[in-house]
Structure formats: C-alpha cells, structure tokens
Amino acid sequence: MPELIRDPSLDSTLDVLREGYPFLYNRSQRFDSDIFQIQLMGMKAICLHGAEAAELFYNPKLFIRKGAIPRRVQTTLMGIDAIQTRDNGEHRCRKEMFMSLMEPASRQRLMSLLAEQWQRYAHRWEQMDRVVLFREAQEILCRAACAWAGVPLEEKEVRLRARDFGNMVDGFGGVGPRHWHGKQARSRGEKWMRSIIRAIRKGTLPVQEGTAAHTVAWYRDAEGELLDVQMAAIELMNAIRPIVAISTYITFAALALHEYPPYRQLLRDPAEDYAELFVQEVRRYFPFTPFVGALVREDFTWHGFEFPKGTMVLLDVYGTLRDERWWQDPEVFWPERFRQWQGSPYDFIPQGGGEYLTGHRCAGEWITIEAMKQAVLFLNDGIRYDVPAQDLSYDLTRMPTLPASGFVMTEVRATG
Ligand code: HEM
C-alpha cells in the first residue's frame, strides 16, 4: 500500500493564509503528486489536485459535506447549515429548488433586468469623474438580483445591501476586521431576509410565483415541511448574494479587455461567439474559489491510498485550472483554447465540478456565464472610457482577491 506524502509542517493553517491561492498547487508541484496530506486546524486533511482527482471528489457516494465547511466560512459566506452542507435526499430536494430558478425563462428575466441597469448606470457615469467598476457592478447586480428574486429594495438601501453582499464574500478568507465585517453583513442580511419571508407567508408582501422569494418561502422539504424562517432567509440569500459576487469576475473581465486589446475587435465578430470563449477563459485564468472541501463518507481506497471515514479532503480548484496537463500554456490568457475544450465536468471547475442535481456543483453557473457575457459586450461596445494609471495588480495571498484599484474608468460615455 503506497504511503501518502505528508507536508512536513506541523500545521498548515497559517501557511494557507500566508500563501493564499497557490497553497495547494505549490505543494502538489513540490511533491510531484496529485495527492498528499497536510495538517489543517489540528486535523489531518488529504489534498487532491487535477481532473482525475476531481472526478473522485465529485462522486457523492464517497463524500459528504455535513461537518466539512468551517464555521467561520458559514457565518460569513453562505450561512449556517445551508444547502452547501447538506447530503443525500435532503440535498437533492433543496438543489431541485435552486435549479428550478435556473430555467431559461427565469435566466432571461434576470438578463433583461441587468441590461436595464447597465444602461441606467452608463448615463450616470457620464456625470462622474471617476467610476470604480467593481463597486458599480455590485450595485447593478444587487438591484437586478433583488428585482429578479422578488425582494423589494428601497433606493436608499441599495448601497448598504450591495456592500453587505460583497462583504459576506470578502469575509470568507479573512481574519480580524474582514471576517468581522463579513459576519456583521450576514446578520444584517439574514434579518432583512427573515422579514421578507415572514411578510410573504403572512400575505403582506405580494410576490410572483417562480421568483426566488416565492419559491423559497413556499418550498417544502422531503417531509412536506416549510423551511423555518431562518433557514428560508439563508437560502433566499444564497440565491441573491452570489449574483452580486459576479462583480468580481466582471472586474477581472474588464482587466482582461484592457490588457488584451485585440479581443475588443474579435468580440465584434458576428461569425463566432467570442464572448463565450472570453468569459470561460476569465473564469479559468483569474482566481476566485481557491479550493472546496468534503469529508470521507465511509472507508475506501483510491490508487492504493486509504481514505478513512471522516477524513477532511480538499480539492485544489485554483491549481486544477492552471495545470499544463489539461491546459496548454496555462499562464497565457488565451480564450481560443475553449474551442477545443471537450466540456468535461472535472477539468474546468471554477464553480465546482460533477453533476448539478446529485452533487454540489454551483447552481448559478449558467447565470454567471450569461451575466459575464452581457457585461463584457457592454464594456466593449455599450460605453467608451479611459483607463487612467492605477494599481491593477491582484494579490494571490488575499482570498478572495481583486485588482487593487477595483478597475477605475474615466471619461465614460454611453454609446446607446
Ligand atoms: C455552490 C462558486 C455564482 C449559487 C458553489 C460552489 C462554488 C461556487 C465553488 C461550491 C462547489 C462545491 O461545493 O463543490 C461560484 C462562483 C460564482 C458563483 C465563483 C461567481 C460569482 C453563483 C450564482 C448562484 C450560485 C450566480 C445563484 C444565483 C450557488 C449555490 C451553491 C453554489 C446554491 C450550492 C450548491 C450545492 O451545494 O449543491 N458556487 N458561484 N452561485 N453556488 Fe455558486
């Protein structure tokens, strides 16, 4: 039986924070192995890297999620005991609820709401000296996501709510003030969502069937029970917050347009859907999710390595997207590589891999791709702008990361 390579560090928790995104990839390269072991938060963790390992990780018969996500991530990013931590029939039933919101007509409604907001903001930006795209995109996405979900949003609260959704995401990899801001944002957001769920159930807030608010408020689990108000609030937010998080990818897409100007012309080519190739490469090339975790369901072996029941297992998302066995010249931004991509659910995993319904793959992947395409085409042709000197570097030791300036635009002019 082969021995698992062990990282010599007594505990790697601080190294994860110090090294950030490349932590797992650095080790898989150093050990020249797709599997190795570390100590994390005082516990043994088996680390996996690459498409073959991703196929193992996304086999729901082998892993569970209950107990796999640290409390500090749940109290900021996704909420305590949400869908991300559920298994078996309970997960399946709740995932069906999320996937029902991703039907083409529902996605189309969101895209129309977003298109309206981009136009509106473009005219506002004409009056501004300096536009920070990341902040503005958060507001645009927040307005459209709330309208799409059936959640009323008053004009005076737009900025606060948009920042709060952003801070929940920003808090997941942070310690100290960043973590604390994330927690504070989450408790404010959950309180707001609880009031929405209560009002819908009391009949004082009319809401259209098919919206996220209606669907979550009236969703019944496998036992035929409504979710308790707190759980419903968390899951409603799990349909809205990640839409606002697309602002991170949109900011990276703006950076890519700026750094690779030949794509501006190619994106106008009517013969090919360049926007699709472009946004797929943005999701591969730029960092967002560092890794995902699960626990071993029952003892099993893989390639002779033992996976004892209850062991924490981490899958390297960041590194799998830049491994040259699957991605030729991975450090080159090259959208055309996606012409040849075979569509495997295991090598291209920026939002998780495997199956949507039976596994934990991101429910919002189609929305993410469509919203990014729309934003890229808008930035390319819906406005003209200058990009003044600024710090566009992004720090890989910070999770999540972003171009430092948030992507500043000046002299914005709407073309439409
Ligand atoms: C799950 C990333 C956008 C809803 C996930 C997972 C990742 C992820 C890494 C977990 C995969 C796993 O545990 O194996 C992202 C990124 C996004 C994004 C980077 C871009 C901003 C969205 C959107 C929505 C959404 C727009 C919905 C509107 C969900 C839900 C889950 C999930 C409900 C839980 C799925 C489950 O546990 O079965 N996402 N996501 N996400 N995402 Fe996303």
Describe this structure in words.
This protein has a single domain, classed as Cytochrome P450 (Cytochrome p450, Orthogonal Bundle). Helices cover 49% and strands 11% of the residues. The protein has helices at residues 13-19, 23-30, 51-57, 71-78, 88-100, 104-125, 133-149, 158-170, 177-202, 212-218, 229-259, 262-266, 274-285, 317-320, 337-340, 365-382; strands at 35-40, 43-49, 63-64, 131-132, 291-296, 300-302, 305-307, 312-316, 383-386, 408-414. Helix 4 (71-78) crosses helix 9 (177-202) and helix 7 (133-149) packs antiparallel against helix 11. It is globular, with a radius of gyration of 21 Å. The mean pLDDT is 97. It binds protoporphyrin IX containing FE (HEM). Residues 83-84, 95, 98, 238-239, 242-243, 245-246, 249, 288-289, 292, 350-352, 360-364, 367-368 line the site of protoporphyrin IX containing FE.
